[in-house]
Amino acid sequence: MALIKHNWNLPFNIIRCSHVECTVKDLDESRRFYVDIMGMIETERTKDTLYLRCLEEKNHHSYVLKQGEKSEVLALGFKVAFDKDLDLLHKHFTDLKLPADWVTKHGEERTLAVRTPMGIPVEFHARQTRVPTMMREFSKYKGLSPLRFDHINCFTPNCQSTYEFFVQELGFRLTEYTLTEKGDMWAAWTHRKGNVHDMAMTNGKGPRLHHTGIWTAGVNNIIHLLDVMASEGYVENIERGPGRHGISNAFFLYILDPDGHRLEPFTCDYLTVDPDWEPLGWDLRDPKRQTLWGAPAPQSWFEHGSTFRGVEVRESDIDSNPIIGQYEDHA
Amino acid sequence: MALIKHNWNLPFNIIRCSHVECTVKDLDESRRFYVDIMGMIETERTKDTLYLRCLEEKNHHSYVLKQGEKSEVLALGFKVAFDKDLDLLHKHFTDLKLPADWVTKHGEERTLAVRTPMGIPVEFHARQTRVPTMMREFSKYKGLSPLRFDHINCFTPNCQSTYEFFVQELGFRLTEYTLTEKGDMWAAWTHRKGNVHDMAMTNGKGPRLHHTGIWTAGVNNIIHLLDVMASEGYVENIERGPGRHGISNAFFLYILDPDGHRLEPFTCDYLTVDPDWEPLGWDLRDPKRQTLWGAPAPQSWFEHGSTFRGVEVRESDIDSNPIIGQYEDHA
Amino acid sequence: MALIKHNWNLPFNIIRCSHVECTVKDLDESRRFYVDIMGMIETERTKDTLYLRCLEEKNHHSYVLKQGEKSEVLALGFKVAFDKDLDLLHKHFTDLKLPADWVTKHGEERTLAVRTPMGIPVEFHARQTRVPTMMREFSKYKGLSPLRFDHINCFTPNCQSTYEFFVQELGFRLTEYTLTEKGDMWAAWTHRKGNVHDMAMTNGKGPRLHHTGIWTAGVNNIIHLLDVMASEGYVENIERGPGRHGISNAFFLYILDPDGHRLEPFTCDYLTVDPDWEPLGWDLRDPKRQTLWGAPAPQSWFEHGSTFRGVEVRESDIDSNPIIGQYEDHA
Amino acid sequence: MALIKHNWNLPFNIIRCSHVECTVKDLDESRRFYVDIMGMIETERTKDTLYLRCLEEKNHHSYVLKQGEKSEVLALGFKVAFDKDLDLLHKHFTDLKLPADWVTKHGEERTLAVRTPMGIPVEFHARQTRVPTMMREFSKYKGLSPLRFDHINCFTPNCQSTYEFFVQELGFRLTEYTLTEKGDMWAAWTHRKGNVHDMAMTNGKGPRLHHTGIWTAGVNNIIHLLDVMASEGYVENIERGPGRHGISNAFFLYILDPDGHRLEPFTCDYLTVDPDWEPLGWDLRDPKRQTLWGAPAPQSWFEHGSTFRGVEVRESDIDSNPIIGQYEDHA
């Protein structure tokens, strides 16, 4: 049986997903894409690292881009409520016999680096250096006018077990999902902060990062980003959309940064703070699930993802293949 | 000293504000305004009561309109996490020697009716009857295309003490505020669900309800509501806006229902789930506070409010008068 | 040489394209699509004909849908300035040895039915019955909130000669175009009313109607139509988009009515009233031409069109094939 | 009788209003306002003059700002179809015994400077220097994202006679109007290019320029301009709106440049190319006329205007006073 009960009894409190840290091959290229085109704010640039945030954000970084030979993901960042939660999480992962180490991260007070059973590198922190919000500096709004980092979406070779880990061991709550014909989880959207997701996972070759999501205030901001990308030579970086997801109700766009890391600018999901919110199940064969308006996603969207440094990628354990099915629906 | 620390140690968990219950003089008139013009969904109509909800909502009601001789507010509704929280709140209010009674409300499992020290009638519940969300039924979107009930704003004759009660005794967290010259709280925005507010309070003749806020997906929905109201004979019900608040960053509109109950359709505030979020203080003399774009609010917006049934309205205890000040700024 | 000079010396004055008349298999189905989903206004319904107009329009019809066994186009309608222009056009077509007959059309004072050399059935009128504009009746805005009929786009087996006819003999002015490698016109956008086009023509199997264009006020109206179509069972009728055309700068969508007649809801083109406006030429290999954002049009968009009743369809005279080229670009 | 017939028999062809030339006290200040805040394109800057255009425009200038001691308007610019129209207009004005002189204007081939009977300085040209459109350079869109110069609105001490001059002697066509109780023209909207107006005139102390109008693609662009103005210190330059006009159906905003020249960014009017378009008359007492949503315009909007250099301003000849009436309606 795929659906499990929510775990309300964990002693620590993960507040939300907060950032991603990845490598890029050319910091100047990345700066042009994230700052000049997308409209993010550069908090700080060191010799080999670019710290970026969105317009609304008061924390030091939501994107950490490090100069590297290969394009990889170094860590997925989550914020906890209080400093003590870091210690509780350290004990929790250690008890689970999972890696858990204290590391030093620029712009964060204390950082706990762990691995999920699937090998995904996750980092927890309670406090980042405070920086000014640019939310009321409207002349800085450009490109997407990105307001805040919203969610993380990963491929996993076993969605059922990854879903169970995030719900049972970390306290995430399920909002939407699709099951395979055999009743296993095919894709799951789970949250901590009260909207559709902080962490989503889909079956597939993994673990790999599928994309990070960025909230903007309205449909027009996404259309404007498309126009800017097209006129500035980034047509090839537009992968899918714009469109409306059945899942999450979001108006979305998928784009690729110069290193192939995928981003999802979106607007409009919904509130899920009620503990009695019933997760919404989708039939894998329902074409509205992926795109309410019917246009199929390109093959690359199902296949491409960013690898995690030093983490082996393996094929999915699940034998059904909904992707083929979906393509057939649209053929 | 006006600012107090947040209270993280309360045993119960209030999730969010959920609804308002008030009297209206003509249910058909109210139905025309809320359903035909604003676009709310009628969940149920009994002989003397109209139960309404917004498009996204799966709960039985966010507006309960009861036929009555006078336009009054009967209760402000809040949702708690679990059924046991109701018992804990019953004990909490009883210990505080405040009224706390179990009442029967259609569409709710158990309902606890209490009074704040100021006399505001508040009702808590853990579960409402589940009804279908209309979020994906886009042909039902009209008027404002209201997505969800968002917040409550009240006049109180002593904002400092009301603010302290909601923070210390109920666990609300401060996001934005203005102080009087003497350092007392003049207006406070406090939340539970992770955006700018569930409950705001402003100094003034009270206690009275100033308005309830309704979230919509974008600027265009608010402009369309204005156009619809104008062409359907509701020009007089448009009180203030559209505009951009400095406070909360919301794009807002204030309208009056046929009984004078004020509503604030708005879009775009921000995320406040971080426990280390620092409340933003505004200078009472800063004109951007009320309206970023400078247009003064009409006198009625400062003076008019809905009374609570059976609750005496008294003058503000605070002797400074920022309203005059603001008007002078714009003269 | 493909480009010819504009003809400023014609004695008559065609004001704009005004309407299309076509057959549909089920008037009730068509009414549901055009009125309930798209939001057009029903001016009148007779036993076998539905007369529709857009919200802004004060004339009797911009879409005339007649019950028929087959889905065909009966006529493309154009409005002339004055009644005398009809007589001048009658003489003009007769002098050119082209069919020109006076016919009776419900809702029009006098109607002149002609054929272009390619066989396209065109009807001219100077006056339609006046009906009220719904532009200020905002509660009638729904679906697309269609404001006005904007343009006609046809396949023609010889774009060069069709283009020359509309420019030399009817006074249309070229705004944008693409040429084949041999320098012949591949596609041409020509206007009378002062925006990008009243009549566009593209090389291909024809003559056939490719689509009619409908103006709406903003991006959000097109997104809302997509959401409504998706939730009301019209996903299969969404053919292409939304997107931004390089050509015309329009934000567009292509949809098919229940009989396969294609419609293009769009917003935002530009003013072309200046006589010294220089037509903009596009390279057929420029992918921004069709879609600024890079997504290729589906094969159906290049191939499907509505036939004109009684007009033989023949293959294009032009031997180059830019469609293949474009597909290769995107493969 | 206030309404006169349109004059279809003039030998020349005025295409549209094209630009305004005025003096400003500080070119750097003006550049900051028009270019940095509003988002216009600087075509050229000479020692004492700034030539600006909007994003869509291919002509050299739509705003000519000249360094001067006083803030004045030097000329209202209109474009004619062909060079010969300039000669025909020269003869026309000379025959009418009105001033008509050939002048030299940077960026224009030939320029004819005339005076209307009321003394308004008007300049006609057929060709400006061609410059590139920025319409497809979306990264240049900012502030208002102004697409094109749209219209001119003037105070005149005798609206009836000014209206008659523009219609009878220059071929403008009436689209909307309001009459005084005695049946004289109080305000008139007249066009050449096929939308609501190129030239509007309102009774009042004059002649003076009330405002120039600028077209933008959507509501969101106007909201963004407001946010940018507010956050960049231009709150005092926001005079009225945003709102919806009954007249013209435009979504509007009125702002003042640093010298007090008024601008109206707006979006969405309608097509008026049909010769049988019937002008829409408004009752002066209809509050929807000015603002569909009911908010009264501030006193300054009725009183303030830019004077024309060397042209005496006199009181209105009309004795009725609709402004008082309107204010009473809203008191």
In short:
Four copies of one chain form a homotetramer. Chain A is of the alpha+beta class and 331 residues long.
Key descriptive features of the protein:
alpha+beta; 331 residues; disordered C terminus; 2,3-Dihydroxybiphenyl 1,2-Dioxygenase, domain 1; eight-stranded mixed beta sheet; globular; homotetramer; ten-stranded mixed beta sheet; 6 helices; 18 strands
What is this structure's SSE topology?
The structure is a homotetramer of 331-residue chains.
Chain A: E1 14-24, H1 27-37, E2 41-45, E3 49-53, E4 63-67, E5 73-80, H2 83-95, E6 100-103, E7 111-115, E8 121-125, E9 148-156, H3 159-169, E10 173-179, E11 185-191, E12 199-203, E13 208-215, H4 219-231, E14 238-244, E15 251-256, E16 262-267, E17 280-282, H5 299-303, E18 306-307, H6 322-330
Parallel strand pairs in A: 1-4, 5-8, 9-12, 10-17, 13-16
Antiparallel strand pairs in A: 1-5, 2-3, 3-4, 6-7, 7-8, 9-13, 10-11, 11-12, 13-18, 14-15, 15-16
Describe it for me?
Four copies of one chain form a homotetramer. Chain A is of the alpha+beta class. Helices cover 19% and strands 33% of the residues of chain A. Chain A is globular and about 45 Å long. Chain A folds into two domains: 14-138, 2,3-Dihydroxybiphenyl 1,2-Dioxygenase, domain 1 (Roll), CATH 3.10.180; 140-330, 2,3-Dihydroxybiphenyl 1,2-Dioxygenase, domain 1, CATH 3.10.180.10. The first copy, chain A, has helices spanning 27-37, 83-95, 159-169, 219-231, 299-303, 322-330, and strands spanning 14-24, 41-45, 49-53, 63-67, 73-80, 100-103, 111-115, 121-125, 148-156, 173-179, 185-191, 199-203, 208-215, 238-244, 251-256, 262-267, 280-282, 306-307. Mean pLDDT of chain A is 93; it is low at 322-331. In chain A, strand 2 (41-45) and strand 3 (49-53) form a beta hairpin. In chain A, strands 9, 10, 11, 12, 13, 14, 15, 16, 17 and 18 form a ten-stranded mixed sheet that branches. Chains in contact: A-B, A-C, A-D, B-C, B-D, C-D.
